[in-house]
Design brief:
By secondary structure, the protein is of the alpha+beta class. It contains seven helices and 17 strands. Helix 5 crosses helix 7.
Length: about 375
């Protein structure tokens, strides 16, 4: 009898220990001040649980008014800061983030219903509405491709690209980048092949090195005009700037109504054609084509602050001729998108002519349509 009771007690203890392990909270986010961890899980920002990609405690999701185009990939963006730390608000540039900040951007595609789990066929769409639900992404409905980390260390920002495995359980650091073959399926069933490019660490610097003199990496989307919008948090819908302040993640910010606001490029009901086109060009091109960016020598500046028509490309002659011009004379010809170099390069998938040069292998058809409409609406001529 005593032996039976002992075994029963032992089984009960084992059961309790198993239940306790199930209820145990995940390990907290870990900031690595040095080195380049081989696995994404070593940071603890994101975790796979119950076939969902979930955020760890203190990790805050966010969206941009107009996102950067990346072969129609959808993106789950997050930010995490050490306890008690906060970012300093800036009206124009990227916020000043404290050492220890970890920014993540997970690129994924919706799965095509009925396709096998290992299928390369994914949905081609511009909208990710409703995919991030109950604090996570349902891996039965989406395919993870990569997660990029931007980490603020004492010496500055460092970019780390992690590629997800076929099982969707872990992402591995790929400093040399990766190519992922996909087939993008549109709503009408048509398909387009895409060679999705995970950038190597040097290519990350090509976009995030927004100051050609310092060459230091900086966030691109973490600016007031891009973040000033509402987000559906677990506790309800709220303005992102206000929510960050409430959490202690942001200081010195004005009320949302007094902060800059970029248009949603798709919002035809509330934003003008000019506002939508300028927002699109700003996020997709302005980090390079700006007075301080790597593309400043072109003389074509497409950032939000630039207002001079010639700098924006209107009747502007290209600095360098060649294949990239498509035998066109001006960057923008008012009223004539077919004669404009800008739309020619956006509508190309030729590596020697296309713009942007990295980050896409297919043409963003809807984006090209927007810029064509914007140019067509402009009046005047180039003489």
């Amino acid at each position: 009898m005593t032996g039976l009771r002992s075994r029963a007690c032992l089984l009960l203890l084992l059961l309790l220990s198993v239940l306790a392990a199930c209820d145990r909270a995940p390990a907290p986010v870990r900031f690595h001040a040095q080195g380049q961890p081989a696995l994404l899980s070593e940071w603890g920002v994101l975790r796979v649980a119950d076939r969902h990609l979930r955020l760890n405690e203190g990790v805050v999701p966010y969206e941009l008014n107009t996102p950067l185009f990346s072969d129609y990939a959808h993106k789950l963006r997050t930010v995490w800061m050490p306890k008690g730390a906060s970012a300093r608000y800036s009206a124009e540039g990227a916020f000043e983030f404290p050492v220890g900040t970890v920014v993540s951007k997970t690129f994924y595609y919706p799965r095509v219903p009925g396709q096998a789990a290992d299928s390369d066929v994914v949905v081609r769409s511009n909208s990710a509405d409703g995919e991030f639900r109950d604090g996570g992404l349902d891996l039965a409905k989406v395919r993870l491709i990569e997660t990029r980390l931007l980490v603020r260390r004492q010496e500055g920002w460092i970019a780390l690209p992690y590629v997800w495995n076929a099982e969707q359980t872990e992402a591995k650091l790929m400093r040399g980048g990766e190519l992922v073959a996909l087939s993008l399926q549109a709503a009408d069933g048509s398909r387009e092949d895409a060679t999705y490019q995970v950038p190597d660490q040097n290519q990350c610097g090509g976009c995030h090195g927004t100051d050609i003199k310092s060459k230091a990496l900086q966030p691109i989307g973490l600016k007031a005009r891009h973040l000033n919008r509402e987000f559906d948090y677990a506790g309800g819908r709220a303005n992102q700037l206000a929510h960050w302040q409430q959490l202690g993640y942001l200081r010195d910010a004005p009320a949302a109504g007094a902060a800059p606001h970029a248009a949603d490029w798709r919002d035809t009901a509330r934003a003008s054609l000019d506002a939508r086109a300028r927002a699109y060009l700003d996020i997709n091109c302005g980090h390079c084509h700006s007075p301080k960016g790597p593309g400043n020598t072109s003389g074509l500046w497409l950032d939000a602050a630039t207002q001079e028509p010639l700098r924006l490309g209107r009747c502007k002659l290209p600095i360098a001729a060649g294949k990239g011009t498509g035998d066109r004379r001006h960057d923008i010809v008012p009223g004539d998108p077919d004669a404009s170099i800008l739309t020619y390069r956006m509508d190309s998938d030729d590596p020697s002519a296309m713009m942007p040069e990295v980050g896409r292998s297919v043409v963003h058809r809807e984006g090209v349509t927007l810029i064509r409409e914007w140019i067509a609406a402009q009046q005047g001529d180039c003489g």
